[in-house]
Amino acid sequence: MGELRVCMIGAGQLSTRRIYPYIGAAGARLVAACDLDEERAVRNTRLFGGKPYTNYVEMLEAERPDAVIVCIGPQQHYELAIDMMKRGYPVYTEKPPAPTAAQALEMARVSKETGRLCSIAFKKRYNVANNRAKEWIAKFDPSDLYSISADYCSAQYSNDSLRRDFLHDFTIHMIDLVSYLFGDASEVFCFSKGKDAYAVSVKFANGAVGSLNFNCGRTFALPTEEVEITIRGGNFMTIHNSSAWRISENERGVEWREPPTFISAGDSGNETGHLAELVDFFQAVREGRTTRSNVYESYKSVVLYEAIRDSAATGRVVKVQYEAL
Question: Helix axis angle, 172-182 relative to 128-137, nearest 10°?
């Protein structure tokens, strides 16, 4: 398969800043963009190429792309991804994959039944710092993992709808990351202050524990993201704002990385993961394989999100249970 021909559904602010500019750099060609707002579709095709549409079915019938990208909202991710796969197209959607874990699981089962890839844009699985962490953790036996802690905060959310819900829209990135680094969770307990602040304790299936601090009382201008990983024997790693890290092994510092500029909130596609995840998706389509953020892995992150939400609501420890495909 040569150059991939890609259609895009959605032309809003996020996709215009974080997806459209990277399609060409990731090795594909945008042939069409669809948005219910015709002006936005016209604007983005003028900027990034392709033909504008307001009806995605008409777009697909006319263009017959190799893959489709969907960036609208979680309900539309769920509905359109299933439709795309049943029509025979590999699909990449923004996060979260669906409003509920049950719907995300349905997406994963359709992917398996149709043989069509469904990949979710969980960028933290792709950025440089977190992949160094994944590589480093793999050096140790899972039974030696002790703990992971994360501080992940944002500016104020309105919390008046699921799409504007802090826990569902923002913290889902960190929920996915701790699962990527430490594996499946088994139990969760959470204190919360309404929908604005969460203190989460997690027990993982490998016996490790985690502590997560989430709140929406800060600012997007100065990102707050701190991750600390501890492994038996004086081994630990700290990651600051998805870009700088320190590694200690056997109680001695062995690695330090400090980027020359502050980039974790900027436009570096590999540092933030936005470009790298598209590269992986396009290569997976060419090679007929899955991705590290395939929809089943993303389903498990929604399961953990729901366990945190339910524990906050009930004041009880929640068992985390994942269904098989």
Answer: 30
Task: Round to whole Å and give the CA distance between 250 and 139.
Answer: 13
3 phi-psi bin (left φ>0, alpha ψ -120 to 50, beta other): beta
Per DSSP, what are the bridge partners of residue 227? 150, 239
Contact (CB, 8 A) for 227 and 150: yes
Q: CA–CA separation, 314 vs 209, rounded Å?
A: 21
In Å, what is the CA distance from 22 to each residue of 19, 200, 269, 300? Answer: 5, 35, 8, 27
Under CATH, to which class is 125-266+299-319 assigned?
A: alpha beta
Mapping DSSP to helix (H, G, I), strand (E, B) and coil, where does residue 240 land? strand
pLDDT in tens, 204-231: 999 999 999 999 999 998 888 999 999 9
- The SS3 assignment for 204 reads strand
Which fold does the domain 4-124+285-294 belong to in CATH? Rossmann fold (3.40.50)
Domain with CATH 3.40.50.720 in the chain: 4-124+285-294
Residues comprising the chain, all counted = 325
In the chain, residues under CATH classification 3.30.360.10 are: 125-266+299-319
The string of DSSP codes covering 103-154 is HHHHHHHHHHHHT--EEEE-GGGTSHHHHHHHHHHTTS-GGGEEEEEEEEE-
Q: What angle do CA 151, 157, 163 make, to 5 degrees?
A: 105
pLDDT tens digits, one per residue of 295-312 = 999 999 999 999 999 999
Label residue 258 by pLDDT band (50, 70, 90). Answer: confident
